[in-house]
TrEMBL record:
<dbReference type="InterPro" id="IPR000600">
    <property type="entry name" value="ROK"/>
</dbReference>
<feature type="region of interest" description="Disordered">
    <location>
        <begin position="308"/>
        <end position="347"/>
    </location>
</feature>
<dbReference type="InterPro" id="IPR043129">
    <property type="entry name" value="ATPase_NBD"/>
</dbReference>
<protein>
    <submittedName>
        <fullName>ROK family protein</fullName>
    </submittedName>
</protein>
<dbReference type="Pfam" id="PF00480">
    <property type="entry name" value="ROK"/>
</dbReference>
<feature type="compositionally biased region" description="Low complexity">
    <location>
        <begin position="308"/>
        <end position="340"/>
    </location>
</feature>
<comment type="similarity">
    <text>Belongs to the ROK (NagC/XylR) family.</text>
</comment>
Length: 347
């Protein structure tokens, strides 16, 4: 069976899969990055993991992978296949595409940024499926965005499009590591909510999930912390939708796991702030932690499609979009492909 290798590299762990042409996860595995051993060891772990996946695919599906896609954090040169910098992994200027291709017998390899790659997965196979233009915003340790246009992700002229987390929403506010003050991710990321709730309760172990539960139980302190985050997020999102005019706004990451505890006040806050802008449909991400792997698989399939001059075969590119300005709803979110096999691999 024809398939590709997909790798989603995080700060502490890697998720990997063999992905079929229809986006099916044929096999899944996980492995620690081993970053405590240094950046060279992390790179070798990635290469060895990919080689193991290639061997598994050849044994179980009758042929080696046709291509590979890998998503990595930090600054990425997609065009030249270089992982330029990742503070959490400690590497600089790693020629990831070349190294992986050499380890995998010369097959074509695509490299992508982790958030943009996750956005590609959500856009084609998940919550954005059928939308000609979408914005994917995961709320995790930080906040970033992926701008989807006709089934593809816009990287920008310098590979940094979508850095919505560094829109200033509170001028003169909290210092940000980027050098600015008052950035969105300092107020509305999961880590920001965790910090605010820990300060409000005096419990250093309290986190955003605890805050969400306290909101649901009616705790006034939690409601205030939560509303502050929602208001900041709405301010940032309205700026983004003013510039980008997305048809669908997909919210993912740890904070989105709060469900309607987040989405009900967020839809209201965004609706209160728009004037002339058309409201996008605001929906939760559908693919969970498989979005990165599925997106990496799509990168690989797209690379193969480009080599033959064909259009993308995995996922749909809308040709008849719905009228702009659809009212945000809480409709059921599309579900992604179901895995057919799963293996837990530890380093």
């Amino acid at each position: 069976m024809r398939h590709v290798i997909a790798l989603d590299v995080g700060g502490t762990g890697m998720k990997a899969a063999l992905v079929g042409a229809d986006g099916t996860l044929l096999h899944q595995a996980r492995r620690a990055t081993g970053r405590e051993r240094g950046p060279d060891a992390v790179v070798e772990t990635i290469l060895a993991f990919a080689a193991d996946l290639r061997a598994y695919g050849e044994e179980h599906f009758g042929e080696p992978a046709a291509a590979a896609g890998v998503a990595v954090p930090g600054i990425v040169d997609d065009e030249h296949g270089i992982a330029l910098y990742a503070s959490n992994l400690g590497w600089r200027d790693v020629p990831m595409r070349r190294l992986l291709s050499e380890r995998l017998g010369g097959i074509p390899v695509a490299l992508g940024h982790d958030v943009r790659t996750g956005g590609l997965g959500e856009g084609r196979l998940g919550a954005g499926k059928g939308a000609d233009r979408f914005l994917f915003v995961p709320l995790g340790t930080g906040i970033a965005g992926a701008i989807g246009i006709a089934g593809r992700i816009e990287p920008g002229a310098h590979g940094s499009a979508g850095e919505i987390g560094h829109i200033v929403v509170r001028p003169g506010g909290t210092d940000c590591s980027c050098g600015q003050r008052g950035c969105l991710e300092r107020y509305a990321s999961a880590s920001a909510v965790s910090l605010a709730w820990a300060e409000a309760t005096g419990d250093p172990d309290a986190d955003a999930a605890d805050c969400a539960k306290a909101v649901e139980s009616g705790d006034p302190r939690a409601r205030q912390v939560w509303q502050n985050a929602v208001d900041a997020l709405a301010d940032g999102l309205v700026t983004a939708l003013t510039l980008l005019d997305p048809r669908t706004l997909i919210i993912g990451g740890g904070l989105a796991e709060a469900g309607e505890t987040l989405f009900t006040p967020l839809r209201a806050a965004v609706g209160e702030r728009v004037t002339f802008q058309k409201l996008p449909t605001i929906v939760p991400a559908a693919l969970g932690d498989t979005a990165g792997c599925l997106g990496a698989g799509l990168l690989a399939w797209d690379l193969l499609d480009r080599s033959t001059g064909s259009t993308p075969t995995t996922g749909t590119v809308p040709t008849d979009p719905k009228p702009a300005g659809a009212t945000p709803t809480a409709d059921a979110t599309p579900t992604g492909p179901k895995p057919t096999d799963s293996t837990e691999v530890t380093a």
